[in-house]
Amino acid sequence: MTNAALNRKFDKIRAREEAGLNKPQSGSRALRKLMGNPLAVAGLVIFLIILLASIFAPLLTPHDPLKIDLRAMLQPPSAEHWFGTDRTGRDVFARILYGGRVSILVGLGSALIAAAIGVGIGAYTGYRGGWLDMIAMRISEIFMSFPQIILVLLMVSIVGQSLVNLMVIFVLTGWGGMYRMARARMLSLREEEYVQALQSFGVPTVKICYKHILPNALGPIMVNITLTTAMFILAEAGLSFLGLGVPLSIPTWGNILNVAKDLRVLENNWWMWLPVGTVISLFVLSVNFIGDGLRDSTDPTLQG
Amino acid sequence: MLTFIIRRLLVTIPMLLVISFLVYLGLELTPGDAVSHMIDPEAASRMTEEQFDQLREALGLNKSFIERYGIWLMSVLQGDFGHSLSGGVAISTIVLDRLPATLELSVFALVFSTVFGCILGTMSALRRGSVTDSSLTVFGMIGVSIPEFFFGLVSILIFALHFNWLPVGGRLLPSYDSYFDHLPNIILPGLVLSFMMTAGVMRYSRSAMLDSLSREFIRTARSKGLPDWRINMIHGFRVALTPVVVLIGFRLPTLIGGSVIIEEVFQWPGIGSEFIEAVRGADYPLVMSIALLSVFAVLMASLIVDVLTALIDPRVRLS
User: Fold this and answer.
1) Engineering a disulfide at A229: which of A97, A111, B182, B316 sits with its beta carbon 3.0 to 4.6 angstroms away?
2) What was the pLDDT predicted at B175?
C-alpha cells in the first residue's frame, strides 16, 4: 500500500471516529476474534449442548440408565424410548446422556490434570534450565517414544481396569506433550526484556515464572488442552469398545458402542450404536473446532 | 555427516536401554512368575516349596534382578523374546507370523494417505480461502474427529453387510489360491486407516505448500513468465515435499496406534490384534515384547527421519 493510500484510509477511520460511528471495542481481542469464527462458535454451541445435556440428564429423561426392563428389550426408537432400548431393555437415550458424564469427565478431567502437571513442570524447568530440565526432558522422551495406545494398553494390563486407573493412565501418557509445549514457550519467553527487568528487581524466580511469563503462554496451552481432550475422548471410546477401558457396568460412550462388535446388532439394531457414535464424533469435532479457533485467535503469527 | 549419525545414536541407544529396563521391571511387577505359569495349577498344588525353589534355581530365577535383566537383554538382542504364556509359542515366532499382515495394512495406508493427502493439501493451498479450501479443511477436521472404529463399523455396515461388495473382515482364507485373492479383504481396513491419516497429511502439506509459495524463488519464477502449473508443481511442490516426507516417519506411531483398533474391528490378523489378545489374556511377556518392539520401531523411524533431514538440510547437522 502506498503512503497516500494509507493516509486516505486513516482519514476515513478518523472521520468515522469523529462522527461517533466507531465504538471502542471491549473485551479481550482473542475472545472477539474467536466469536467471529463461525466454526469455533458452532463448536462452542455443540460442546455446550452436549455438556449441559449430560450434566442435567435427570431433567431430560425419566429413565434410569442402569435399570433393566426385560419387557422392553431391543425396542426401536419410539416416543417412550427416544433412541430405543438395548438387549436388556435399558433406555439408550438415558445411557448416552449419563454416559456423557463419565466420558467427558475422563476426557476433559484427564486433559486438565495432565495440563496442570505438564505445564507446572515445563514452565519451571524451562525457565530454570539445568539438570532438572534435562531429567524432566528425558522422562518425557521415554513416555513419548511409545505409541500412545500401546502405552495405554500396556498400563491397563499391569494395573487393571477401573475409572480412576484409566484417568491416571491418561494423565501419565498425556503430560509429556503439555510439558514440551510449555517448556518450548518458556525457552523463548525467558529471553524477553521484561523478564530481565523483573530479574534485576529481584523478583523471586517462582513468581516470575508462574505469574509473569506463564500467562503469555496461555494461548497455546488452551489449544493443547482442547486437542488433548479430543484425543482422550477418542481413546476412552476406543478402549471401551475393545472392552479394555472403563468397566462395562459403568455407562460411557465407548461402553455403549461396545455392542456394535456383534455383526447382528450392527446390521439390525442401528439405534444401539449409531446415535452414540454420532454424539462422540460431534463432541470431538466441536472440541477440535474450538481448538482451531483458539489457535487462530491467540497466535498472532498464524494467519492461515 | 558420520559424526551426526554417531551423535544421534548416542542418544537413541541409552534411551532404548532405559526403556527395555522399564519394560523388564514391568514384567517383574506383574503377578506370577515363570514357574507359576509353567505348571498347571493342579500339579502345582501337589508340589512342595522345595520343589518350587529347585525349579526357580534351574531357571535362574533366584539370581539378582540386575543379573536376570542382563541375561534377558542378551537373549532379546539375539531375537529371543521368550515364550508366550498362552500356548507357550516362542514370541519371536508369533511376531514374525503376524508382522506381514500389519506391514501390508500399514504400507497400504501410508501410500494412500501420503498420495491423497499431498494432492488435497496442495489443492487447498493453491486455492487458499476458496470454497474448496474451507470445505477440505472441514473435511480434515471431521476425519480426525470420528472414532476410527466407529468409521470402520459404518463402512462394514454399508459396503459389506448392505451392498455385499466387500468381505466383512479377515485376511487369508483357506479357499484363497493366490496371494491376490485377498485383495478385496484389505480394501476396507486399508481405506478406513488411510482416511484417518489423510486428514493429517493434508493439513501438513497445505501449510508446507503455503510456506513454499510465499518464498522469493516463486516470485522469481513468476517474473520469468513461467506458466502457473510449472511454478506450482515443479518449484513450489518440490520444496513443500521435503517436510511431508519427514512427516511419513513421524506418522509411524499414529499408524501403529491406528492399526491396533482397526485390526480388531476387521479381524485382521496382525500384530495389533495379537497385542489386544495378549492384554486381554494377561499374557505379560507377549505384551511387553510387542510394546518394546513398537518403541524400537518408533525410535528407529525418528532416527532415520533425522538422518534424512540432515542429508537434505545442512543447517540441521551442524547445529
Assistant:
1) A111
2) 60
Chain A environment of B212 (Cβ under 8 Å): none
Neighbours of A122 (CB within 10 A): 31
**Position B125 confidence tier, pLDDT thresholds 50, 70, 90:** confident
Closest CA to A43 of A226, A288, A295: A288
A162 φψ region: left (φ > 0), alpha (ψ -120 to 50), beta (else): beta
Percentage of chain A beyond pLDDT 90 is: 19
Residues 243-262 of B with CB under 8 A from A: 252-254, 256-257, 260-261
Q: Which three cell numbers stand for residue B96?
A: 514374525
Residue B301 neighbours by CB under 8 Å, 6+ apart: B249, B250, B252
Residue A76 near chain B (CB below 8 Å): no
Q: Is the ipTM of this complex over 0.95?
A: no
Residue found by looking up cell 523388564 in the block: B24
Query: Nearest-5° angle of CA B268, CA B172, CA B291?
Result: 35
List, as ranges, residues 70-109 from B with C-beta within 8 Å of A: none
Q: Which B positions 273-302 lie with beta carbon below 8 A of chain A?
A: 275-276, 278-280, 282, 284, 287-288, 290-291, 294-295, 298-299, 302
Phi-psi region at A84: left, alpha or beta (left = phi > 0; alpha = psi -120 to 50)? left
pLDDT of B104 above 50: yes
Per-residue pLDDT of A184-212, as tens digits, reads: 888 888 888 888 888 888 888 888 888 88
Helix, strand or coil, per DSSP, at residue A300 = coil
**Residue closest to B126 by CA, chosen among B224, B225, B240:** B240
